[in-house]
Amino acid sequence: MECNIEYVGKLRNGISQYYCTIHKSFAYDKKGNKLKECLCNYKEMYNNILDLKENNIEKIEIIYENILENVVPKIFINNKEFTGIFKYDNCILCYKDLGGLMLSKLNKIPLEGIKCSHCNHYHSDNGKFAYIPHRTHLCLYCGHLFRVKEKNIGNEFDFIYTIPFIKLNENTIKIENNCCVKYDLFKGNLIINYSEVNKILIKNEEVNVIDFLNNTLKNEF
Fold it and tell me: What backbone torsions phi and psi does residue 168 show, to the nearest 5 degrees?
C-alpha cells in the first residue's frame, strides 16, 4: 500500500511534522522536510490484511523467538503463522499493538476505549505508554496529539475480544543467550523459555519478568 503523507503541525522548535495515515508512521527528516515515503519499516505487512470480523479467530499467539536480539515477534492465528496486519471495522492493528496489549495485561492495567478528538478513531497504546497512564496521546491514525481528562491507557484489541490479565507463577529460570517469550492472548498465558515464571536470572541478576519486559519493549511504540 502506498503512503498517504499529511502535514500535522510543527514541534516547539519549529520543525514541521508529516505523518503517513496508511502506515501509522512519521514522514519527515531531522530538518522537518517531507519524505517521499514514511519511516515505517514493516510496510509489506499492509499488503496482507486479516479482517477479524470475517474470520473465526480461536487463538492469537505472539512469539518473540529471542527478545534479547529481536523485538519483532511472529504472530500465529489459529496455530498458523500470519505475516500481516489486522482489520476490525475502521481499526487497523499490527504486532506492536499486540505487544502493547501484552504489557498492559502483564501490568494489570484496566484499558479504556479512548477516541482521538481530531479523527474520532479509537486509540491503542504500546511500548512504555502501554503501562504508564498518561493524558496526552499520539493518535496513530492521524498523527495528531490529543488530551483526555484523566490519565489512562487504551488498546483496541481489548474491546474486540475479552482478554484476561496475565498470571505469573512463582518461579525463576536462568536466561543466558536466548530468551523466547510466548504470549497467548485469549488464555492470558505468558511463557519464558517454555516455563511460566515471574522472575528471571540474567547476567547474575534476578529480575522481575514484568520489569524485564517493560524495559525491553519500552521503545516499541
Answer: -115, 135
